[in-house]
Amino acid sequence: MYYFRGFDTFRLWGKECLCFLYTKFNGGDCNGYSMFSVVSVVVVSLACVTVVTNASAGDAGKMSFFITSVGPGNGVDLGGLEGADKHCQKLGSSAGAGDRAWRAYLSAQGKDFADQNVVNARDRIGSDPWYNAKGVLIANDVEELHSPNNYLNKETALDENCQMVNGRTEKPNTHDILTGSRLDGTLFGPRFFTDMTCGDWTQSGEGAVMLGHHDRVGPNDNAWTKSWNSAHLSKRCSPEVLKKSGGDGLFYCFAEK
User: Fold this and answer.
1) Is the CB of residue 68 less than 8 Å from the CB of residue 161?
2) Domain count within the chain
3) Strand 176-178 relative to strand 247-255: parallel, antiparallel, unpaired?
C-alpha cells in the first residue's frame, strides 16, 4: 500500500476541501494526512472536483432568468419582439435550458392608440418564481419583481452562461439593459408621443430606448438612476451610440413557463 505524505499535489482542489471531506467521511482530523491511502485520496479528490464543477456550472435546469451574454448585433433592432424572443430561446437552449419558453423582457408601444401590437413587458414573462443560472432567486412573482424587494443586482443578474455582466465601474461598461418600460414594467404611450422602444425593436439608427441598470448603480443617489428596468433613455439606437453610454444591446430573458 502506498501513501501520500502531503497535500501539495492536490492544491488545485483546495486543501480545505480535502480536509473537510476527509474528516467528514473518515473521522479524526487532518493531522494524520500521511495515512491517506490512494483510494481515500482519489475518492476525496473526485468529490472536490464534483463540488467545484457543479458550483461553476450553475443550475441550468432551474434557470428561468438571465441577461443575454450578447445582443443580436444590430443595436436596438432586435427583429421586433419575435426576434428578441428567438434570441432568448437560442441562448437559453445553448445553456441547456431550451425546454423552457423564453421571453424577452420588453414592452411594445405601438405607433398610435389604434395599434393593437402593444404589450407590457411584465405581461410577457409568466408568473412563476425566477432563478438565475446558479439557482439563486430573483423574484417570487411579478409584483415582487417590480418592487424594492426583488433580488436583482449585479451579483445575481447573470447571463445564461452563469457569468456576471460588466457594471458601471468596469470596462467595457455594459450595464445599460434594453427594456422600453416604466418602473412598474408597463409600456409608455404610443410612439407618436415619444419613441421609447426604437420603433418597437426594429431600428438601429434614429430613435431612443428606455434602459435599466442591472448593477443598480447610477450617476447619483436618486432611486430612478439605480432602477433595473427604467433608469434613462439612450441617445440613439445604433450599436456605436449604445456602447458610448454604457450598453451593448443586451436585454433580460425570463422563462414564461
Assistant:
1) no
2) 2
3) parallel
pLDDT digits (tens, 9 = 90+) for 74-122: 999 999 999 999 999 999 999 999 999 999 999 999 988 888 889 999 9
The closest of 251, 243, 68 to 172, measured between CA atoms, is: 243
Grid cell 418564481 in the structure block, residue? 129
Residues 186 and 74 in one domain: yes
Is there a single domain that holds both residue 226 and residue 144?
Answer: yes
- Please give the biggest Cα pair distance in the chain: 83
Query: Is-above-0.90 flag for pTM?
Result: no
Query: Side chain identity at 158, as an amino acid letter?
Result: L
Structural domain containing residue 71: 67-257
**In this structure, is residue 1 part of a structural domain?**
no
Among residues 211, 243, 249, the alpha carbon closest in space to that of 227 is found at 211
Q: What is the CATH classification number for the domain harbouring 250?
A: 3.10.100.10
Q: Note the pLDDT tens digit of each residue in 6-25.
A: 333 333 334 444 444 444 44
